[in-house]
Design a protein that fits this description.
The chain is globular. With 375 residues, the chain is α/β, with parallel strands linked by helices. The longest helix has 18 residues.
């Protein structure tokens, strides 16, 4: 559980770069089936309307998905995360799922559960996924539908979740902490932990739209909690706070202040996993979508992307001196959302300091110092 507080791994600079250079095996990949969704959540970074004809036309076909999965397996892939948008909107979801399953891939599915029906249950019972991960936006109809902005979705979510759990389908539950649902976060945590034997996680940091839509970005910014509220919610959740306290030496690491590395990407993006967008866009991680960091897999092979393109992107250097002297040498960077992907979404620049992310990191650090008795 504590790993969710660290950006894939503790930032180590040159160490991580050397790992990336020596890699060769792709272990897992995310596969977006669609950007369309039946919900219209206030905080969502990708969703397009369920009936969006242009988005549907851009989606990878069954044959293209089959081919890309074969390419991924040849590179060593064992696990695939099927996501969206809402992947169950694809009319050929069952066939896609079975194609991937028959190849021997371990499959996880991200869904809002609103579209789950008996046919999905039959599919998942006969050919079980590794897990299905469902986001809980609220535990009351009023709160849930203020987030989803679609009437009837709370009842549909509860029905879908009950179908999954009553039939023994492995489910993981998660939540986003928003201004809209912050008052229900303790109840959401209780709801989720009562219904999963695995773990419950919640994320209070929202990143901006992949398409950089200014209207939707304004809605996301309006849902962000103040830094002190983020720290308070995390501190009041015993499991979350305990995990952070346990990892305090990784999350607050003064040795990072001495690094001389100027490599831009120092997280785990592209080390043993990648992301394939609904339109065939190759990315080191789902969030990294800046110009020069993506490829069109309808034009190049996955092997070329993985073996030749990934090292080039991971070789990018910091160009902004302020970023180099602040974020790149910050003892509490692992408490922060800063990374090349999020930096670009916020500012249009891969290496820019962000006041909001920095304030959250300092609020978290202050709570950790208080809890652990540090000076």
């Amino acid at each position: 559980m504590s790993a969710e507080f660290i950006q894939y791994q503790s930032i180590q600079g040159q160490d991580v770069w050397e790992r990336a250079q020596s890699k060769g095996r792709l272990l897992s990949f995310d596969l977006e089936l669609t950007a369309r969704c039946n919900n219209d959540c206030t905080h969502c970074y990708i969703n397009l309307p369920a009936g969006d004809a242009a988005a549907r036309a851009a989606e990878l076909s069954l044959a293209e998905i089959d081919d890309l999965a074969n390419q991924a397996i040849k590179l060593g892939a064992l696990w695939c995360l099927v996501t969206g948008g809402e992947p169950l909107l694809r009319r050929d979801f069952a066939e896609i799922y079975m194609r991937l399953k028959r190849k021997g891939l371990l499959l996880s599915v991200f869904t809002n559960a609103c579209l789950i029906n008996e046919e999905h249950i039959d599919l998942f019972k006969r050919y079980p996924p590794r897990d299905i991960e469902v986001t809980v936006y609220g535990v009351t109809e009023e709160t849930y539908e203020r987030v989803s902005r679609k009437p009837g979705t709370y009842a549909a979510f509860r029905r879908g979740l009950d179908l999954l759990q009553h039939n023994g389908i492995p489910v993981r539950l998660k939540a986003m902490a928003l201004r809209t649902n912050a008052h229900e976060m303790p109840a959401i945590a209780e709801f989720c932990r009562a219904r999963t034997s695995d773990y419950f996680r919640f994320d209070p940091q929202l990143h901006l739209r992949y398409d950089r839509d200014p209207v939707r970005n304004a809605e996301i910014l309006a849902e962000r909690l103040p830094p002190e509220e983020v720290a308070r919610i995390e501190g009041e959740d015993a499991q979350r706070a305990g995990a952070m306290d346990k990892q305090c030496n990784d999350l607050v690491n003064p040795a990072l202040e001495q690094t001389n590395s100027d490599y831009l990407i120092r997280c785990g993006a592209g080390i043993d996993s990648c992301s394939i967008g609904y339109d065939g866009t190759f990315r080191l991680c789902s969030g990294l979508q800046a110009p020069g960091t993506t490829l069109d897999l309808r034009q190049v092979s996955l092997a070329e992307a993985w073996n030749e393109f990934v090292p080039r992107v991971r070789g990018l250097r910091i160009s902004d001196q302020k970023y180099q002297e602040s974020c790149a040498r910050c003892a509490i960077v692992n408490l922060c959302l800063t990374c090349a992907a999020h930096s670009y979404l916020e500012s249009g620049q891969l290496d820019s300091w962000n006041a909001s992310f920095c304030a959250i990191a300092h609020a978290r650090a202050a709570r950790l110092a208080g809890e652990t008795g540090q000076a």
